[in-house]
Automatic annotation (TrEMBL):
<dbReference type="GO" id="GO:0017168">
    <property type="term" value="F:5-oxoprolinase (ATP-hydrolyzing) activity"/>
</dbReference>
<dbReference type="Pfam" id="PF19278">
    <property type="entry name" value="Hydant_A_C"/>
</dbReference>
<feature type="domain" description="Hydantoinase A/oxoprolinase">
    <location>
        <begin position="5"/>
        <end position="289"/>
    </location>
</feature>
<dbReference type="Pfam" id="PF02538">
    <property type="entry name" value="Hydantoinase_B"/>
</dbReference>
<dbReference type="InterPro" id="IPR002821">
    <property type="entry name" value="Hydantoinase_A"/>
</dbReference>
<dbReference type="GO" id="GO:0005829">
    <property type="term" value="C:cytosol"/>
</dbReference>
<dbReference type="InterPro" id="IPR049517">
    <property type="entry name" value="ACX-like_C"/>
</dbReference>
<feature type="domain" description="Acetophenone carboxylase-like C-terminal">
    <location>
        <begin position="305"/>
        <end position="469"/>
    </location>
</feature>
<protein>
    <submittedName>
        <fullName>Hydantoinase/oxoprolinase-domain-containing protein</fullName>
    </submittedName>
</protein>
<dbReference type="InterPro" id="IPR045079">
    <property type="entry name" value="Oxoprolinase-like"/>
</dbReference>
<dbReference type="Pfam" id="PF01968">
    <property type="entry name" value="Hydantoinase_A"/>
</dbReference>
<feature type="domain" description="Hydantoinase B/oxoprolinase">
    <location>
        <begin position="499"/>
        <end position="1022"/>
    </location>
</feature>
<dbReference type="GO" id="GO:0006749">
    <property type="term" value="P:glutathione metabolic process"/>
</dbReference>
<dbReference type="InterPro" id="IPR003692">
    <property type="entry name" value="Hydantoinase_B"/>
</dbReference>
Length: 1163
């Protein structure tokens, strides 16, 4: 999409000059007699000229070289064609899958956090290498490995260059797996330093030196195991059907352990594994591909059309290789089509032969795609299939690589004594092994057999043959490792008693990632497939912890379900609901479809997996089913009470049909429901595998330990980071879409002793929050959801690697008065709860930051603004768009807020090209808004501007906030800019300011909606921000020239800092700050004015009249019968009278008909 292509252009502009300079120098040094070939990211070679022109194709050539070496040597020369490659170096590990001798490719190259549109070998990287640092966070006492690396300098402690932190290499040294001298004896290991570094870890977690070293390796191995599963299991491949090829400097040391986890045998250690990447360059061949975007449904195109395009592409690609000296007779042609269900997120590459396409027509493409989709996702859909891209790849048919056979061994058991370098001792699985042979690999012969334990050493790497493995050398010098026939059968619980909790934690994290990957690939709606609006989780399945979330988001719904479900729960069942009242707010509106699956192992329920995803439409009053004017939940859409979607494995087709029939987008609903269930099932399979691997009892104990760990960490935080005094904070939701607002959300946080005297609990009391609204902005807050949010913020700040779970919830109490905005009474409408859901994030920041500088931050983009556009295409087909907007992250103690970001970090924007492809609109403008982030020492992130030009008549709905109040700045930082919505009518050019929340806004062809989101508040005094940073941001368009004056920065005509003028202005700003008496470090917020002041300036600044105060309404319905609500309402009236004085009655709308007050028609 456009973002990836833009990155590709930028990366090419950055990389190309360096590539050109290097290649020109290399060519000049070698002379004309040498022909230079450059390795590409996809494992093929290219010429110097093409390498310069397409420099972005070289970014991943390093990892690609190793994969090319495996494909060219192992796959070509042995009988092992299905391979998992495992390349472990100093800082990271790269893995890839090779099927039938061909490496998997992907259409994008990801470097760090950047994704470039360039083909590459599908290598997955994980931050676990020899230099990965082990550490134990003080608050959780959990063993962590990586992603921080010691690098080459100072490197592991064993290098003797000043490194003091324990690394994976140091753990290998302590256990005896690495010889005292490396590189043929030229490099001596500092064993004492390694022991000293690992002992620090041992002392921190209460283990012996050797136990700690083994723990470090096993945690690292678990991370690498997750990466291997990501390229195999997630793709529908069984790793047991593949052999593991280990290389890189550290790969052979960990090969047996990884093979044991994957059951991928034999393990193959090629000769010189430390330099296999370089060897791969020599055995691969020239390659070029040409592609064309050709978006069409299979029903709208003919096989002849596709054939003509493919032949044209093939001719172009062939000509490029001919220019590089490869005759057409030495070229191999392959073809691929990127295909997907129409509207689906991820396309699948489908390989095909031109001959088959000519013979069978488009049926061959349809059949291949359907089969591949079912293999990957376990289901297929009755939806139109479309082609996205067509490709022709041409590769040189290279000369066969000739490998020299090793001399045949004359020994039947051990190698010749000439190969024995020394004997050593190692520690493995709790036992010490003495007299372990260390063999010189260059002295081994074909047919040599080695029984573990043993170490095989060579110049560039070392291979560990574990005690339960054996090794054999093949004719080409590859070492083949197998599990010993006599190896004792032991559960991993027995092997890993000391660190089983860490291993289960890592396995759960891998399972969660697998759930994410499956939904991403198989969901159909933009909400789930593009913006990732889904939230998977896994919970304990039995005993006192049943239903407690052990990994996931938003806390558990399972306990709420168990409290009210009266029917049976059996293996094969899948439960479903979208009713928030059924699960006490575990989901928050009817669009959130929740599925829950009990996981059984050997007849016992051991876990629950669950998933909630946002459905685009559930039959509500308005397209998208988020009616702002809805007064009851009946107007929000269809309510699915707790039901069985599957009963002992049997699908309730009638229920699925009911859900789809009550949706304006039934195809989305059906596909997304399949995706949610499939993700739960894959997680259930992984849980069963954990039970088989560790034992059920050990697995359940690990879950209990994980929950206890978070509880103990939170208890410690209560003691050390939460002050004893009561802290109160409030914020506002600007309006409810019917003209009433702002709505107050208030919370008081304090500690109180537990009843048993064992400690304290943290209490959140929402007394003072406004009574519930009569529109759909209420949010039924689940106490577990609030506990998850607040505990996550605290614990993650001190241990970012911790797995969030429900363990700490016993140490928190959430008190929300019934009948208020956050605890409405059925049948209150809930569909537009997103504004309160987000605003309470600012509430957490305001509460916790008051006395803790490390948690102090400004207000940010605390919302998920929704935009809807619906109508009829010119061909009579209904369309409906649902999109979430992004804004500015607040300035923080650690730095600036991010520009144009989501409230939920996992969410992504819908690419503009997707919008324009599937909906009748054009994106006229998309950018961040200069100066919209609050000025500060750390600037608030900017909001975004997106202009939609509508190409068909239709209706739009708007759901946004912060158009009246501002995202507050903190500690001298200024507030961020407000949001705004303006409709520019094509007929007359009139600009119509729109409210932040409205339904049924009619648009015509050519009308333009200018949508601007708000920025984040600033942190710290603006004139303390480095002047050069401000100048640079002016040049980058993030801050305007006038906006630089907010920081006290004066610029020259060349947009450089005018040092003299800047110094003068900043001195004046500092003097004003001193006069105002601001204290450094004191908690101070800037809301941009009092409510009365904001009301007084509202129409002049926004073009809209101020809302009517909710305290002026007459309460009706269930809340009016509650004495505490009536008392609260009276209190709010008094507060508003004091705030607004003589203007109260005007702003409260006293005397205005309540049925029409604030309502406005846009039909």
């Amino acid at each position: 999409m456009e973002y990836e292509r833009t990155l590709t252009t930028v990366v090419a502009a950055m990389v190309r000059p360096k590539v050109e300079k290097y290649l020109d120098s290399l060519h000049a040094a070698l002379g004309e007699s040498f022909t230079i070939r450059i390795l590409r990211s996809d494992g093929g070679l290219t010429s110097v000229d093409l390498a310069k022109e397409f420099s972005s194709n070289l970014l991943y050539s390093g990892p690609a070289g190793g994969v090319a070496g495996v494909a060219g040597i192992i796959a070509q020369k042995t009988r092992y064609k299905n391979l998992l490659t495992f390349d472990m170096g100093g800082t990271s590990t790269d893995v890839c899958l090779i099927q039938n001798g061909i490496p998997s490719l992907r259409r994008e190259t990801t470097v760090g956090d950047l994704t470039v549109r360039a083909p590459s070998v599908d290598v997955r990287t994980v931050g676990a290498g020899g230099g990965s640092i082990a550490h134990v966070p003080e608050v959780t006492k959990a063993l962590r490995v990586g992603p921080e690396s010691a690098g080459a300098t100072p490197g592991p402690a064993a290098y003797g260059k000043g490194g003091v932190k324990a690394t994976v290499t140091d753990a290998n040294v302590v256990l005896g797996y690495l010889p005292p001298a490396l590189l043929g004896g030229a490099f001596k290991m500092d064993i004492t330093a390694s022991k000293r570094a690992v002992q620090v870890i041992a002392d921190a977690i209460g283990l012996t030196l050797n136990e700690a070293a083994e723990g470090i390796l096993r945690v690292a191995n678990e991370k690498m195991y997750g990466a291997l599963k990501s390229v195999s299991v997630e793709r529908g491949h069984d790793p047991r059907e593949y052999s593991l090829v280990a290389f890189g400097g550290a790969g052979p040391l960990h090969a047996c352990a990884l093979a044991r986890l994957c059951q991928s045998y034999p393990v193959i250690i090629p000769p010189s594994p430390g330099v296999l990447c370089a060897f791969g360059d020599a055995v691969t061949s020239l390659r070029h591909e040409v592609g064309r975007t050709h978006i069409c449904k299979l029903t709208d195109v003919s096989a002849t059309d596709i054939l003509d395009i493919c032949k044209s592409l093939s001719t172009q690609a062939s000509a490029v290789l001919e220019m590089q000296g490869v005759d057409s007779s030495r070229q191999r042609h392959t073809f691929e089509a990127d295909m997907r269900y129409s509207g689906q997120a991820l396309s699948l590459p489908v390989a095909f032969l031109l001959e088959a396409l000519e013979r069978d027509g488009l049926e061959i493409l349809q059949r291949s795609f359907t089969t591949l989709h079912h293999t990957l996702f376990t289901y297929s859909l009755d939806l139109p299939i479309e082609i996205i891209n067509l490709r022709s790849r041409v590769e040189e048919i290279s000369d066969d690589v000739i490998l020299v056979d090793l001399v045949k061994s004359e020994n039947e058991v051990n190698p010749s004594s000439n190969a024995l370098a020394e004997r050593t001792q190692i520690y493995w699985n709790g036992d010490v092994y003495y007299d372990v042979p260390v063999w010189e690999r260059n002295e081994l012969r074909s047919g040599d057999r080695i029984v573990g334990p043993a170490i095989i050493t060579e110049m560039d790497s070392n291979t560990l043959v574990m005690p339960d493995h054996r090794a054999e050398v093949d004719r080409f010098g590859n070492i083949l490792l197998w599990p010993s026939e006599s190896a004792a059968v032991r559960s991993e619980a027995e092997d890993n008693q000391k660190i089983i909790t860490e291993l289960v934690e890592a396995s759960l994290a891998n399972a969660r990632l697998e759930m994410d990957a499956l939904i991403l690939r198989s969901a159909l709606s933009p909400a789930m497939r593009e913006q990732l609006d889904y939230f998977p989780m896994i919970s304990a399945g039995s005993g006192p912890n049943e239903g407690k979330m052990v990994i996931g988001q938003f806390g558990s719904y399972i306990q709420h379900f168990l409290n009210i479900w009266k029917g049976s729960i059996e293996e094969g069942d899948v439960f479903i609901t979208n009713d928030p009242y059924d699960v006490q707010g575990g989901i928050s509106h009817l669009n959130d479809m929740l599925v829950m699956l009990p996981v059984y192992y050997n007849g016992k329920r051991v876990a629950w997996t669950a998933n909630q995803g946002h459905f685009t439409d559930v039959g509500g009053q308005t397209p998208g089913s988020l009616p702002i004017h809805g007064r009851t939940i009946f107007e929000d859409g269809i309510q699915i009470p707790l039901s069985k979607l599957y009963d002992k494995g049997q699908l309730n087709e009638a229920l699925v049909n009911v859900i789809c029939r009550n949706s304006r987008t039934p195809d989305f609903s059906r596909a997304d429901l399949h995706a949610l269930v499939a993700a739960c099932r894959i997680a259930g399979q992984r849980v069963s595998e954990m039970c088989a691997r560790f034992g059920t009892e050990a697995f359940e104990q690990a879950l209990a330990d994980l929950l206890d760990r978070n509880k103990m960490a939170f208890a410690q935080l209560l003691k050390t980071n939460i002050p004893a005094r009561r802290m109160t904070f409030h914020d506002w939701m600007d309006d409810d879409g019917t003209g009433l607002g702002p709505w107050k959300v208030s919370c008081t946080m304090f500690k109180e002793p537990l009843e048993d005297g064992s400690g304290e609990r943290l209490v959140y009391d929402f007394d003072g929050t406004d009574p519930q609204a009569e529109s759909s902005v209420n949010w039924l807050v689940s106490p577990t959801t609030w506990k998850m949010r607040s505990s996550a913020y605290l614990i993650k700040a001190l241990d970012p690697s911790i797995t969030l779970n429900d363990g700490a919830y016993d140490l928190m109490d959430v008190r929300i008065p019934l009948g208020t905005l956050l605890n409405p009474i059925r049948p209150a409408a809930l569909s537009c709860r997103t504004h309160l859901l987000g605003r309470t994030l600012d509430l957490i920041l305001g509460l916790i930051g008051q006395r803790q500088p490390r948690f102090m931050t400004a207000a940010g983009f605390s919302d998920s603004p929704h935009f809807f556009y619906s109508g009829w295409r010119i061909d009579g087909i209904y369309f409906q768009l649902y999109q979430i907007s992004f804004g500015g992250v607040p300035g923080r103690p650690v730095g600036d807020g991010l520009d144009g970001h989501s409230m939920f970090p996992s969410m992504k924007t819908v690419p503009n090209e997707i919008l324009e492809l599937y909906f009748p609109l054009r994106i006229e403008h998309y950018s961040t808004i200069p100066d919209s982030g609050g000025a500060g020492l750390h600037r608030g992130g900017n909001g975004i501007r997106i202009d939609y030009c509508f190409l068909r008549p239709g209706e739009i709905s708007l759901h946004d906030d912060r158009w009246l109040t501002k995202p507050w700045g903190v500690n001298g930082g200024e507030p961020g800019a407000r949001s705004s919505k303006t409709l520019v009518r094509a007929a007359d050019g009139v600009r119509v300011p729109l409210p932040s929340k409205a339904d049924y806004i009619a648009v015509r062809e050519g009308d333009i909606l200018e949508w601007r989101t708000w920025g984040g508040g600033g942190y710290g005094v603006p004139h303390k921000r480095p002047a050069e940073v401000v100048a640079r941001e002016v040049r980058e368009g993030l801050v305007s020239r006038n906006g630089a004056l907010r920081y006290g920065v004066v610029l020259t005509d060349a947009l450089e800092v005018d040092a003299v003028a800047t110094s003068t202005v900043r001195a004046e700003m500092e003097a004003r700050k001193t006069v105002e008496g601001r204290e450094a470090g004191a908690f101070e917020i800037d809301r941009g004015g009092t409510l009365a002041e904001l009301f007084g300036r509202c129409e002049a600044e926004t073009g809209l009249p101020p809302p009517r105060l909710p305290s002026g309404r007459t309460l009706r319905g269930p809340p009016a019968a509650l004495p505490h609500i009536m008392a609260l309402h009276a209190k709010r009236q008094q507060e508003d009278r004091e705030e607004f004085g003589a203007n109260y009655e005007r702003y409260a709308g006293v005397g205005v008909d309540e049925e029409v007050r604030g309502r406005r028609s846009y039909r």
